[in-house]
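Hi everyone,

Forwarding the result from last night's run.
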Amino acid sequence: MDTIVIILLLIYVLIILISILGLTSMSVAALIGAVLTAWFGIQYGIFDYEGAVGFVDFQLLALLIGTMIVVEVAKRGGLFNVFALYAIKISGGHPARLFVSICVVSALVSMFLSDPTAMLLVAAATVTITKLLKYDPTPYFLSAAIMINLGGTSTLIGSVSNMIIGLEAEITFLEFLSFLGIGEIMLWGITILALYFIFRSRLGTKKSLPEYDPMEGVKDPQIFSRSIIILVLLVILFISVDLIGVGPEAVALGCGILALLVCRVDPAEIFRELDWETVFFIAGFMFIVGGLEQTQFLGDLSTQLFDFAGGSSLIATQLTLWVSGGASAFVSNIAVALTFTPIVSAQALSGLNIDAIWSALILGTNLGGATTPFSGAVMMMAVGTLKREKIEIHFSDFVKVGVITTLIQLAFSSIYLIFRFGLM
């Protein structure tokens, strides 16, 4: 193995370890890795400065930022909070119905929101309701976090890893739904059922809900109504990108600009609330993966991994699903997605069922993110919220729930992919 390959691999491993151990923020760790990768890569002649700049996928960043702007404006209008409170009100204070309502709403909201944002909104509603009804919030919180992680798997804009994989694989919004839509609905039902059986003894007894109007939380009806129209427009345009001849990043940025214009919100406030941590983490990590890609290491790794499949799309798909799912249980699924996309992309002309493999990567990177308290931002936020409410949860209890649900989800996904893509 060449010296430069060893150096860049060490940088990659170092940044992953720094992120896992929390020695600094993920964005700072990734930017440090980007600087080191650029320095050593240029010094060893693996790439030049102009080539290094090309490692950053500005289409992905534009898609991410545009979607964040639309969502932030909609959040200011109170759309998602109203959505959550209506679903809770429909439950009528019945603990089982309340539990299912929170799970379904969590998944639905995360289809269009970033996972941390969805967690913040659902957490606020869940804290309020469980306090009023004097329920143990732990089963509701953890289930909501797991469903948010699952719901984000459903659409192209549901999670950052989906955006990364979708753009690299050139999967349209509709193709994304056609590949995974039915499987996702089934996964929602299976996961909610599993969580209910795990937590049913802790859900509490039926109580009367206090009288409240979910619409009372809407501070600006004009922003509320206009943000609904823009969010619907965003989804329609995503579905129609092939017809209008532009990329999803242009749609996202265009709708973001429109939201700022017609909703008359302060752009400075919106920009301050965007998840710049994720944006800079992705940009920095792109440098690290791009440098490794230039050494041909990832191409060689791809060949070795898929040679193990022996030309079988079935084995290749299952290998991708379980390896990416296992990796995402310990490493940020954004990092896993950025690492695996060039590995899978190298197999585009191999004759394997590439749509099945991309779908396996989408499922694996997302589903593995709810295994432990450190698997992803949603899980860490859920634990943090419980601690702020002075509710302690043991690591073993969390892992038990996370491992059970993740294994169930991955096992079902294995079967679903076989039948959806005819891999037998």
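DSSP finds 21 helices and no strands in the chain.

Cheers,
N.
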